[in-house]
Amino acid sequence: MSDATNSGPVLSADGTPLKRSLARALRRQKMRALMLIAPLLIFVLVTFILPIADMLWRSVENQIVTNTMPRTVVALADYDGASGELPGEATFEAAYYDLYIAAERKLHTRLGSRLNYEQTGASSLFRKSGRGLDDIGEVYMDQFEDLDKNWDEAEPWAELMGDPAWLEAQGKWQKGQTQPTFKASGAIKELLPRTAEQYALFAEFQQVDKDKSPLREEPWSAVHTALYQDLAEADVSGYTGPQADLLKAADALVASPDFETVTFKAGFEEIDEDWMDPEIWVTIQTYSPELTNGYFLNAVDMQKSPDGAEFRDERERIYGLLFKRTIFMSMVITISCILLAYPVSYLLSNLPARSANLLMILVLLPFWTSLLVRTSAWKVMLQQQGVINDILVWIGMVADDSRLTMINNQFGTIVAMTHILLPFMILPMYSVMSTIPPSYTRAAKSLGATNWTTFWRVYFPQSVPGIGAGSILVFILSIGYYITPEIVGGTTGTFISNRIAYHISSSLNWGLAAALGTILLAVVLLLYWAYDRIVGIDNVKLGG
Q: What is the structure's pLDDT at 175?
């Protein structure tokens, strides 16, 4: 065979270079493996990764303020909340238009609920303001309508404000068809900018939200307010477009000394005097950014203020106490499970298979009973008129008028959760202990070791991986439990998870719940890291 032949590429049976053929086969093998695990990856992504990402986003997301009150946020940009003074008339004007639109779209109550998390009473203030803003606009609307009834009709308004092409297209619209997007007359946009803006918002609302034609709906009172403001500043004497006479008559009315006006500030004060408290404006300004650390500050018993972050009043600090209590009680529950599970696991691993299987059924039996039923059973047993107290009174260990308080406190939570989580400690321990060869202990005894030395120096070190696996499992489960502490914990035995559940289901403060959940997740990861550094996660196993 020649040198040229020897130096050429090695070919497969089909004539393809062997290296390329192997690479192709390896790619196909990887794709098959990926397809096999794809359902599991999608499941983990949808049920685990995405919810965590959503929780992290909700803990800092704060778009509702700037989206609902964009003009007010801009007007408050230079407001000095620490001065103790109210913002200027321009800010009240911006708030009027923002809240009017929000009220029409039913968004003002959501905004009030958001700000109520930071300032008590904000929710009722915004709800009341949504009903009272019409009073400001009606001052002008009534006077324009008294001047000419056409100001109370939809078509004259549409002819005045709309572009002729839009008017023609809108006039042909029928129910079920897509409505043409409103376009204001160029002359009106330049002459009456506020009115054009407000009418455009009104027209969009009627078309998109109500599926109604602006040609048949009278404009909001806010549009009349904007018309007054424009007429007070503009010169309409040169206007010759549609409804010119109507507009000029309104201009003359506004210029007359008998025309009644009201400042936006006075209008807000008439709605509710709380608008005269600088604190509400400081709250709006403080929580106007689209991203906020306010939820995390609340989660660690702090709050935002014009001077920066500061701790809440001593009486309002609850989350730090709950975090400490949760970690402490979870550790106590874990230690209790270790002390109770170790002898049971040792017994199971050293009994004959038939007896061990029978006892294992008893260990697994609680899994066949509802968690709610098991927790409620402990509530019946531990209460002052319960089974345990009755027995103690019957045998004379406790006086009838001095029954033990074992429920609605930390003791009740620890007892109930230890019972519920005990199988999760027994199973990992048993699986590890069952793999420890009995010959090791026999060899130690044959060399003169006592029973205690044999256990402590030979058996126990080999069982530590099972203790580690069970401890991680029980601790992580207990730190996130909320059903059992809610039923038997009372005011002193509840966990931080109970507060998270409350904010999700009752107060609907999902941002704070997300922040608390994120901190809890960080605490678990930190403890996991510390455990890995001290014990070593590689030493944890479930047998084998």
A: 85
Residue 441's pLDDT is 87
CA distances from 482 to 319, 375, 473, 479 (A): 15, 11, 16, 9
Strands (E), 253-405: 302-305, 308-311
CA distances to 256, 348, 366, 432, 474 from 361, rounded to whole Å, are 93, 11, 9, 18, 20
Q: Which of 87-91, 116-120, 505-509 has the highest mean pLDDT?
A: 87-91
* Mean pLDDT for the stretch of residues 76-83: 87
- The Cα–Cα gap between 483 and 501 comes to 10
Question: Whole-angstrom Cα distance, residue 168 to residue 288?
Answer: 41
Find the domain containing 53 and state its range.
3-58
Domain total for the chain?
Answer: 3
Query: Are 279 and 119 contacting, i.e. CB atoms less than 8 angstroms apart?
Result: yes
Asked whether residue 73 is assigned to any structural domain, the reply reads yes
Q: How far apart are the C-alpha atoms of 21 and 404, rounded to whole Å?
A: 78
Q: What is the pLDDT at residue 343?
A: 94
CATH code of 509's domain: 1.10.3720.10
Q: Clarify whether residues 50 and 73 are in a common domain.
A: no
For the residues 424-432, what does the mean pLDDT come to? 92
**Do 381 and 406 touch, CB atoms closer than 8 A?**
no
Residue-level pLDDT at 1: 44
Dist. CA 309–CA 99, nearest whole Å: 28
Distance CA 439, CA 456 (A): 16
* Residue 302 and residue 312 in contact, taking contact as beta carbons nearer than 8 Å: yes
What 8-state DSSP symbol labels residue 184?
Answer: B
